[in-house]
Amino acid sequence: MGIGLVGVGMVADAHARAIRDLEGTIDLRGVFSRRPEPRTAFAQKHGVPAVESLEALIADPALDALIVVTPPNARQEIVEAAARSGKHLLLEKPIERDSAAAEAIVETCEAAGITLGIVLQHRMRETSLKLKALIEDGSLGTLDSVQVSVPWWRPQAYYDEPGRGSYARDGGGVLISQAIHTLDLMLWLTGPVESVQAIAGTTAHRMEAEDFVAGGLRFGNGALGSVLATTAAYPGGAESITLNFSACSARLEGGVLDLYHRNGETERFGENSGTGGGADPMAFPHDWHRAIIADFAEAIRTGRPPAIPGRDALAVHRLIDAIVRSSREGVAISPAP
């Protein structure tokens, strides 16, 4: 399967390494970025062709799909070009800067009949899949409460890059750029949030958007929860989700799942791995990206939906919009259906 890469930012390296692992089933046909020097340097580093325009990349008759890792404000034009040419799309999170713009992209792809997958790779961790299966078989009981913590750290130099942490380029701060992974995983495990009341602001950084958010959640099944997310918690730590069920409490932290059964038994699955929660945003393995890309390619081959379809990923965008709106208005907000 022929894949093209659009964008050469930090996460592009993880995608290139993942595709290299899949050599024999996926052919990286070329890389395009509007910035010539980074594009050439990336192409030389990974041994792939540097393509001078998006149109030239899409015109490749052996190209089946694009992986897009640009900032979210650069997505619409790329999506429309791919849709016109019938090329499938795998987009890095977030889809766009807010849920309305994200839904427009999803609708563009649906109208064109192309597959749209979203890179929310925390769902592909072995322990995430293990916990999902336990929840679905009912062995943990009913969900009573939830605690989510994203205690990350970013130095000021991270936000000194033009546009980073701005609404115009990124759509916000810690919520849409970092905590989106953990919030998406939470929703995948718990089901929808009915309402949220939150506070958000900027604490330790010079940036336009928020670097701290805390809030209370009420879930559709009646469970209550809390969320705290920040990039101002030096030196940074692993994100965690704790789900308290009637028969067992489950805690996901990094790549480890701990189960605390009400009968006194405990179980542990997985092993610690980097999460990118500290000063190095890329301090995590590329295995989960590899799993996302392999699944996406198989979805195209077989005609089934990918692991994380575009429409499925809209839920976390709507939750983030609700958290931001709640913090601004000082009232409880229900995410859009």
UniProtKB/TrEMBL annotation:
Database matches in Gene3D superfamilies: Dihydrodipicolinate Reductase, domain 2, NAD(P)-binding Rossmann-like Domain
Gfo/Idh/MocA-like oxidoreductase N-terminal domain boundaries: 2-116
Pfam families: GFO_IDH_MocA, GFO_IDH_MocA_C3
GO MF entries: nucleotide binding
Highest taxon above the source species: Bacteria
Record-annotated GFO/IDH/MocA-like oxidoreductase domain positions: 129-243
Protein name: Gfo/Idh/MocA family oxidoreductase
Organism listed in the record: Arsenicitalea aurantiaca
Lineage: Bacteria, Pseudomonadati, Pseudomonadota, Alphaproteobacteria, Hyphomicrobiales
